[in-house]
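Example with several molecule types.
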Amino acid sequence: SYELTQPPSVSVSPGQTASITCSGDRLGNKYVYWYQQKPGQSPVLVIYRDSMRPSGIPERFSGSNSGNTATLTISGTQAMDEADYYCQAWDSSTGVFGGGAKLTVL
Amino acid sequence: EVQLVESGGGLVQPGRSLRLSCTASGFTFGEYSMSWVRQAPGKGLEWVGFIRSKAYGGTTEYAASVKGRFTISRDESKSIAYLQMNSLKTEDTAVYYCARTDYDGNNYIFDYWGQGTLVTVSS
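Resulting structure tokens for the full complex:
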């Protein structure tokens, strides 16, 4: 079965750039979706089709996908961005989530 | 405003059944697929399955971990998606989210999520 691998944790200082990676076999050939989940809340879509932002998502969120790695980048990270981030892709009509990365803003 | 409200969770013994409901409002239910995603306590998200809209055949797909035990259905007249869970195991304990699922080429987007309902499987 297809697997997506994320680092368990990522730390960033306020105002700096955070990069959260997601790795999978030939992931660049698939679309990647990113979901943000804050403690006690439901997930929220922040990036779709590798790099597209839904309406209402701040411009500081961006994404890329090439080769075996997709990256979610948060520029000018704010305290409110502290959350778990999950990458997700589809493999033959089966949804696959990465294990999630906890972003700490300190 | 899109709203998804899950219900039906609770404590159930291993081997028993439970049916979850996801009541949708604020959009044309029939135009969207609907998915279920679960999250075990302190763990990550796990895709459970989805049901396509009628326009795409109303067919279903399931994760290997639940295939043959769980069934997703939908009632267009009531704007409700269901998750019928049979032969429950302790490892099915999780918060179950329903998500509106938009078609995206050969993929799907979970663009709105409910608040989730907790299912605890324990004797």
